[in-house]
Amino acid sequence: MRTVELRSDTFTLPSEAMREAMARAEVGDDVFGEDPSVNLLQHMAAERMGKDAALFVPSGAMANLVSLLSHCERGDEMVLGNLSHIFLYEAGSSAAVGGIHPHPLPNNPDGTLNLESIEAAVRTDDIHFPRSRLLCLENTHNRCWGSPLSVAYMESACTLAQRLGLKVHVDGARIWNAALAEGVAPKDLVRNCDSVSFCLSKGLGAPVGSVICGSEEFIRRARRMRKQLGGGMRQAGILAAGGIYALNHMVERLAEDHALARKLAYGIAGIEGLEIQPERIRTNIVHFRVVAPHMSAAALVERMAERGVRFLAAGGRLVRMVTHFGITEEDIDWTLEALKLSCK
What we know:
Blueprint: E1 4-5, H1 16-23, H2 36-49, E2 53-57, H3 60-71, E3 77-81, H4 85-88, H5 93-96, E4 101-105, H6 115-121, E5 132-138, H7 151-164, E6 167-171, H8 175-182, H9 186-189, E7 195-199, E8 210-214, H10 216-228, H11 237-249, H12 254-268, E9 274-275, E10 285-290, H13 297-306, E11 309-310, E12 312-313, E13 318-322, H14 329-342
Parallel strand pairs: 1-11, 3-4, 3-5, 5-6, 6-7
Antiparallel strand pairs: 2-8, 7-8, 9-10, 10-13, 12-13
Helix pairs in contact: 1-11, 2-11, 3-10, 12-14
């Protein structure tokens, strides 16, 4: 039976060419700053994000946590979306490890936060309140249809944050998808942001790692935070080589993932018992609802797994599928046929 893995783009596997690049990587001790492959990856990442410096870390969750710890002191407050990955899916690490107080605001369906709500959330200087220190944005937005946030919105939010005395961190796990969808360079999306992190191990297909980009001063602090969290690695160039290959060879092909996601979405739109707004699918994440009265999201996931198609229930009747490197048009056709059979 065909197996189609749509749970996440974290299930990408490195290509043979990427494996070869990793096997041949030049390495050193990165904790001492002497791994040439890590240094090259960091230089490439900083340049492409339009920032002064960058830091390679083991995971996206650590990238966000290191960034938050580098911006905030214990007891400070960050403003973020109620559907953001940092708020929902990172084990409360900002509070548990950093003592950072979250102030969640409702995300709009396109992943944005209302600028008026951000301004209203900032605390006055009063000993009863935590200090408002940081605004966190997510681009693309995982829970909001994989929506890309536009250059215009990002610049408006950053201008507001600067006026309010807030730093801005962007959880850009899929920032390359956002840039492709918006038809811009990723650095255009984060031009006025203080920090951005992005994943190498999602659509870019590398096996491990994320990169944080920001100013020289910010990255110096982030390097210390990484060490405190146990994220200092030694001959990490073997992993960094996968990231270098990804930046050189895997970015433009993300368009294939977007096209397959649209094909999937428009196919789902024609299946009775399922509900989707296919025109909203602009990147590689497809959310839809199970509306058939006899079927729950969990039941559909189970039925589809029996037909070799794996994806996730995302709460209530909502489900999520994610296209990525390794998924083909034939896989999408198989998935749509399996959905038709499972919804009967």
